[in-house]
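[audit] Reproducing an earlier prediction to check determinism. Same input, same settings, fresh worker. If the tokens differ from the archived copy the diff job will pick it up downstream; this log only records the rerun itself.
[audit] input (140 residues):
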Amino acid sequence: MRLIKKDEIKEALDEAIKDRLCVQAWLGHGNDLFLGFGDSLPDPAEYDFDTYRPKYQLKTTFADWRIETSGRLIVESNEDPYEAESAAQCLVGRHAINWKFIDSTLELEICFEGDTVLKITRMSSGNEHDNELLHEELGV
């Protein structure tokens, strides 16, 4: 496994997310959130969930996530999967305005138009040593 450097993560997130449209949102096993980003929504007449692959994709494996609008919680990863997936659809059709990485908490925030924010936080292992190692690897 290759360690990804912080500047590589920044470049990838800038290219894939900043100013892009969320074109797909769905939940996988364990409430992993999958988001697709692109330049336009797929044509509904030609859209096939099983074959459509957005240009850019984000998956929240081993992470907790939550969506807030105007500071109010809309949904979070530990909710009922059907309700969580339905609520996550609020991101589809919204442009991602920007993103930021919060070093102290290892949290990724993706800000969408309409004052909507997706917050992704690494699941805690419960082991402080693991958290310290991750901070060292990321240089934070």
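[audit] rerun output stored. Observation attached for the diff report: The mean pLDDT is 85.
[audit] end
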